[in-house]
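Form P-L/3: holo structure prediction, ligand C2E.
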Amino acid sequence: YQAKHSPSHVVIYDRRMSEKVEREVAIAGQLQQALKDGTGLELYVQGQFNITTRELSGGEVLLRWHDPLMGRISPADFIPIAEERGLIGALDKFVLQQSCQAIQQWQQQGRGLSQRLSVNVSMASFEQADFGIWLEQLLDRFDINGHQLELEITESGLMHNPKGALKTASLLKQLGISLAIDDFGTGYSSLAYLKQFNATKVKVDQAFIMGITDQERSQAIVRATIGMVRELGMQVLAEGVETEQDAAWLVAAGCQFAQGYLFARPMRINEFADSWLPS
Ligand code: C2E
Ligand code: MG
Ligand code: MG
Ligand code: MG
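OUTPUT (holo model):
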């Protein structure tokens, strides 16, 4: 296809690429700066619920970033850039540290969260040889128990380095930290592997959940996943539950936990505490 190689096409392609790269470099630079003292970074938490009783079952920490020059940037944009440009280790540690600090603070105020706080961790962090030890020291430093923490690893991240993941997973288990597989259905793992990995929870990706009552193919996938996950002794949570119809369908299919705008939006961590941990 000749036109593709014509000079004008090459120029357009190059300019687009360089704009994209320039933006990524700018984001990475600003993010690196933000991670130094946490300026512009804020932890949000979204509640997780028992889908039948609607009681709080936990909370997922979601990072928010407002850059003074570039404005609000979504984690869907900055997390992949942090991963590509070597910043994700610092970012994950920042979020874990802030999360543990919050747990300690609630404890000291006598309003400890009885459920776990769930923190997203990139595979690049998870596979670091010293990650388990770093976490152990973190728990020590804030005097909190591993039972108060859960880590979420995406299914695709997991399959990127299954061996490395198994090592860290066994260390975490000794600390009492539980593991959830995030965005399940978008990677290519087998449930048998997840069982070996000792995951406590499988989070079914929101792509399968949104509007599930109209989608027979998603229904088949989700029904089979719920059955197998529970059969293997793990818990199943549906992500992105937005409507009562979706929730009703999930209850009927045997889903145990849910997260989504129907139940709660992500909110500032202090707001989350005020809503769910009344003093
Ligand atoms: P995730 O871990 O799968 O988080 C769920 C995402 O779905 C969040 O987007 C949340 O705000 C959104 N969400 C929750 N309920 C609903 C719903 O009912 N409808 C819709 N449309 N969306 C819903 P968010 O906060 O933009 O985060 C995007 C992704 O960025 C996360 O996906 C996670 O993979 C990553 N991420 C966020 N914070 C962190 C972090 O601190 N560390 C790391 N490593 N990754 C993070
Ligand atoms: Mg998550
Ligand atoms: Mg997810
Ligand atoms: Mg996701």
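COMMENT: Residues 60, 120, 152, 182 surround magnesium ion (ligand 2) (CB under 6 Å).
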